[in-house]
Design the sequence.
C-alpha cells in the first residue's frame, strides 16, 4: 500500500523536525520535504484565517492543524479549506498525531469540544441565514446520515439500507446541496444539533 504523503508546514524548524520524527514512527506515513502531499500538517503557535488561506495552494490535500491557539471564528473556514483535525500542541503525542493524519485520509475529524461547538454555531447561523433547517430531512436522508455517524462508508451504507451505492451518493449530495453544507461530517453534526438525529451517549456526555 502506498504510504500517506505528508508535508509539514511550520515556521519553527525545531517544531517541524519534532513532528516529522513523531510521524515517522508510523510505517503508513512518509514525511516529504515538498509536495504534492495527501495530508498537510500545519503547526504554528497561533492559527487564524491568514494562515488557513495559505492552505489553498495545497488543495485538495487534507490538513491537520497543530497549535496552541486556534481562532474559533475561523473554524468553518478551516473545514472548507480541508482541515480535518485540530490537535492542541500541548497534547500532541506521536500516537495522536498519527491518528489525526491517518484519520484525515479516511474523512475522520478530531477536534476539541470548544471548536466542535463553534463549528455548530457557524453552521446554524449559515443555515438560518438561508432560511433552512436540518430538521426537514426525510426518512431516507436521516437513515443515510445515521449510518455516516456510525462510521460507515458508501458501500457499507448501501448494504445496510439495501440500495445501490449511487443512491447513497445521490442522497448525500442532495442534503449537502440543499442545506449548503460542505461534507457529510457537517451534515451529521448539524443533524445532532437540530435534533434530526438522536445524539449518541458519548457525545451527550461532553
Sequence:
Amino acid at each position: 500500500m502506498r504510504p500517506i504523503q505528508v508535508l509539514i508546514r511550520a515556521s519553527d524548524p525545531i517544531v517541524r523536525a519534532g513532528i516529522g520524527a513523531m510521524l515517522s514512527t508510523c510505517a503508513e506515513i512518509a514525511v516529504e520535504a515538498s509536495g504534492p502531499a495527501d495530508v498537510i500538517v500545519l503547526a504554528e503557535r497561533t492559527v487564524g484565517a491568514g494562515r488557513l488561506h495559505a492552505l489553498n495552494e495545497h488543495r485538495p490535500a487534507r490538513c491537520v492543524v497543530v497549535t496552541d491557539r486556534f481562532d474559533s471564528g475561523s473554524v468553518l473556514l478551516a473545514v472548507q479549506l480541508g482541515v480535518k483535525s485540530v490537535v492542541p500542541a500541548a497534547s500532541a503525542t506521536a500516537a495522536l498525531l498519527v491518528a489525526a493524519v491517518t484519520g484525515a485520509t479516511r474523512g475522520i475529524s478530531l477536534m476539541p469540544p470548544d471548536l466542535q461547538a463553534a463549528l455548530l454555531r457557524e453552521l446554524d447561523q449559515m443555515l438560518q441565514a438561508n432560511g433552512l433547517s436540518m430538521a426537514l430531512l426525510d426518512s431516507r436522508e436521516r437513515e443515510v446520515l445515521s449510518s455516516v455517524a456510525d462510521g460507515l462508508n458508501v458501500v457499507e451504507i448501501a448494504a445496510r439500507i439495501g440500495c445501490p451505492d449511487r443512491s447513497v451518493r445521490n442522497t448525500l449530495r442532495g442534503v449537502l446541496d440543499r442545506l449548503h453544507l460542505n461534507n457529510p461530517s457537517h451534515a451529521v453534526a448539524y443533524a445532532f444539533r437540530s435534533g434530526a438525529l438522536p445524539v449518541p451517549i458519548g457525545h451527550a456526555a461532553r
